[in-house]
Design brief:
- By secondary structure, the chain is mainly alpha-helical.
- 19% of the residues are buried.
- The radius of gyration is 14 Å and the shape is globular.
- The protein starts with a helix and ends with a helix.
- It is 79% helix and 0% strand.
- It contains five helices and no strands.
Length: 98
Amino acid sequence: MKRLVLIVIILIAISCFSDDKLLHMNVSSILESIFSTFSDKSEVITFSIGIVKEVYDLLSKNGVCDFYDILADIYGIMLYKMHRFNDYKFSIVIALEF
């Protein structure tokens, strides 16, 4: 049941993703792969970088601070974890949404 709720949440969020959100997902996935090689807290590090970027956008007025950017960062972390633990059934559902 938890997995079904998670899938529904992801599908709803991905449906409103733009190219910027996909970029956030890709960068977070890459950062997660880098940090997971030397840290047990790689999710926290990657998520913190995403939060810092959004705070910078809010304070600098050069970018747009967006809650969906943070969600895209979370999905990027989840995508890497699915790849790492070979949970391909779940990743197929995400791929079909695109």
